[in-house]
């Protein structure tokens, strides 16, 4: 299998390592690299000094995407900066590749419909990289929510907070794509987008949203550093609010989702890998001691390759990615216009 890596930053290299370990000699790797930075990462985001990525994985690198695509790769991993996701994915699909598209699919809705149509016309798979759908705590929470064993849902809340200044310890935070508006940065598109995906996966699409977001800190960034959004759900699971918080400040990092029911509550702690269930006076904690973060990426990769082989896709579709992107764009619009935004203004065409 010939695999084209479009971008080989930290997340691209994680996918590369997992693909190489899983496929072995079956994989031939190509790469489209713009900056050509000679940094080789470990799973823990450490620089592996003295290691050449191209040599380690026998990669043929190209500085021109058309030239790389002319090698006729079978699949393409689009893992470059957010602002280039749609243009690169579109080229890859039209060249006959099945595509793994990292989150978010873009920083706005431009080109999304065109990519959807191109994938449909060419019958190509486009799989969106939201690895948290493979997190055991979120899978357990989805089971509990779907069972409705604790009565109607009253409300839900997600929260993610982490210091931007220490996320990429190997480089100046102000130079990262997360800090730059022109590269699709900001806490919503780079952190909260994961939460928006699993919220719509568990609860369905929202009907409306109101939000506050902006830059309140002295960080040297051109994007928002916090967001507080409230989505109104009104579907098969009932009508209730879901609040979603994200920031670039918290230390130690915090990441959880809590659902309050009429007769209890459930909280998934994604970092501690625990699920706490309260029913009446009884509180129980389920632990997942064997959880390793990279396993989510491995499971995600296997799901993508299964879709490619079977030519069937039932999860993490381009449409799923578009829902999460619309949720993010709607929150930004609600904050900018200081009003409740009807989600239908971004509905599927």
Task: Characterize the structure shown.
With 349 residues, the protein is an alpha/beta fold. The protein folds into two domains: 2-131 and 298-313, NAD(P)-binding Rossmann-like Domain (Rossmann fold, 3-Layer(aba) Sandwich), CATH 3.40.50.720; 133-290 and 324-346, Dihydrodipicolinate Reductase, domain 2. The chain is built from nine helices and 15 strands. The strands form two sheets. Strands 14-13-12-11-7-10-9-8-15 form a nine-stranded mixed beta sheet. A six-stranded parallel beta sheet has the order 3-2-1-4-5-6, with helices on both faces. Helix 6 runs parallel beside helix 7. The model has no long low-confidence stretch (mean pLDDT 93).
Report the major sheet. Answer: 9 strands, mixed
Number of domain units: 2
Overall pLDDT score: 93
* SSE arrangement, N to C: EHEHEHEHEHEHEHEEEEEEEHHE
Q: Give the name of the CATH superfamily of the largest domain.
A: Dihydrodipicolinate Reductase, domain 2
Which residues form runs of ≥5 with pLDDT under 50? none
CATH class (first level) name of the largest domain: Alpha Beta
- Terminal-residue CA separation: 35 Å
CATH fold category name of the largest domain: Dihydrodipicolinate Reductase, domain 2
Please report which band the strand proportion falls in: under 5%, 5-15%, 15-25%, 25-35%, 35-45% or over 45%: 25-35%
Taking strands numbered 1, 2, ... along the chain, how are they ordered across the largest sheet? 14-13-12-11-7-10-9-8-15
Radius of gyration, taken over Cα atoms and rounded to an integer in Å: 20 Å
How many H/I helical runs?
9
What structural category characterises the helix and strand content? alpha/beta
CATH A-level architecture of the largest domain: 2-Layer Sandwich
Any idea what the shape is? globular
Helix content: 25-40%
Q: How many DSSP E strands?
A: 15
């Amino acid at each position: 299998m010939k695999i084209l890596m479009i971008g080989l930053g930290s997340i691209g290299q994680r996918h590369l390592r997992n693909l190489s370990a899983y496929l072995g000699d079956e994989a031939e790797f190509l790469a489209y690299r713009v900056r050509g930075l000679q940094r080789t990462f470990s799973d823990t985001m450490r620089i592996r000094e003295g290691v050449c990525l191209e040599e380690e994985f026998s990669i043929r690198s190209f500085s021109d995407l058309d030239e790389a695509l002319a090698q006729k790769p079978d699949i393409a991993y689009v893992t470059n900066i957010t602002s280039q996701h749609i243009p690169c994915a579109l080229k890859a699909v039209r060249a006959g590749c099945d595509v793994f598209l990292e989150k978010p699919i873009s920083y706005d809705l431009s080109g999304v419909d065109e990519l959807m149509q191109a994938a449909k016309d060419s019958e190509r798979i486009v799989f969106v990289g939201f690895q948290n759908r493979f997190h055991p705590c979120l899978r357990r929470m989805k089971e509990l929510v779907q069972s409705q064993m604790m009565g109607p849902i009253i409300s839900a809340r997600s929260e993610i907070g982490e210091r931007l200044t220490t996320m990429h310890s190997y480089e100046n935070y102000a130079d990262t794509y997360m800090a730059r508006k022109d590269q699709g940065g900001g806490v919503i598109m780079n952190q909260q987008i994961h939460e928006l995906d699993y919220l719509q996966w568990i609860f369905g699409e929202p009907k409306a949203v109101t939000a506050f977001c902006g830059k309140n800190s002295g960080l040297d960034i051109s994007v928002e550093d916090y967001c507080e959004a409230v989505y109104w759900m009104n579907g098969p699971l009932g009508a209730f609010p879901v609040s979603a918080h994200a920031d670039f400040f918290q230390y130690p990092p915090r990441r959880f989702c809590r659902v309050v029911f009429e007769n209890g509550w459930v909280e998934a702690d994604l970092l501690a890998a625990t699920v706490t269930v309260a029913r009446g006076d009884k509180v129980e904690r389920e632990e997942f001691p064997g959880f390793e973060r990279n396993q989510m990426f491995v499971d995600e990769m296997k799901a993508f390759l299964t879709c490619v082989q079977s030519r069937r896709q039932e999860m993490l579709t381009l449409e799923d990615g578009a829902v999460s992107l619309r949720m993010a764009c709607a929150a930004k619009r609600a904050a900018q216009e200081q009003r409740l935004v009807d989600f239908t203004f971004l509905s599927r065409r």
